[in-house]
Amino acid sequence: MPQGGFFLLYMKFNPISINPQEAQFLETRKFQVNEICRIFRVPPHMIADLEKSSFNNIEQQSLDFVTNTIRPWLVRIEQTAFQQLLTEAEREKYFVRFNVDGLLRGDFQSRMNGYAIGIQNGFMSPNDVRELEDMNRIPEELGGDRYLCNGNMIDIGSAGKTAQTEGSDNTE
Fold first, then answer.
1. pTM to 2 decimals?
2. Distances in Å between the alpha carbon of 55 and those of 34, 68, 81, 107?
3. Do residues 103 and 70 lie in contact, with contact meaning Cβ atoms separated by under 8 Å?
4. What phi, psi does 143 have (nearest 5°)?
5. Of 6-10, 92-96, 110-114, which one has max mean pLDDT?
6. How far apart (Å, rounded) are the C-alpha atoms in residues 24 and 170?
7. How many helices (H) and strands (E) does the chain have?
8. Cα 143 to chain center, whole Å?
């Protein structure tokens, strides 16, 4: 150790970058991944290429994959199976259908908002929603199969009758 408390440091410079040929090779590999996705119509996130992905566009890409890639093939298979596997008599009673509803479900909040609208407008019952969510049914006596409608969306002709009935109950 030198006197006076000084140290001499010797360093050697090692570049941490890659040479242009290796960089071009990596870019070619990225292009190959995207090209394979294009050929097979598969979103890049499904083969773990998350370079240009975010949570929002992954969900949309997944829905698009089911709608534009999987569904056309499923329709072809359904039609072929219906024509070639079922007899004339069976075709009147049965049909072939792939259920991809689980793949098209979307996020929780959107599903719940849609279910709420369906129940409030009377085209879904609570048990319809529970079946879609793979939940047990509510017994019929508890109202699970009732179709409801929003109270402030009643027929204009019935509005006066409802008010009169309520008014007569209050005056007694």
1. 0.55
2. 19, 20, 37, 11
3. yes
4. 95, 15
5. 92-96
6. 83
7. 7, 0
8. 29
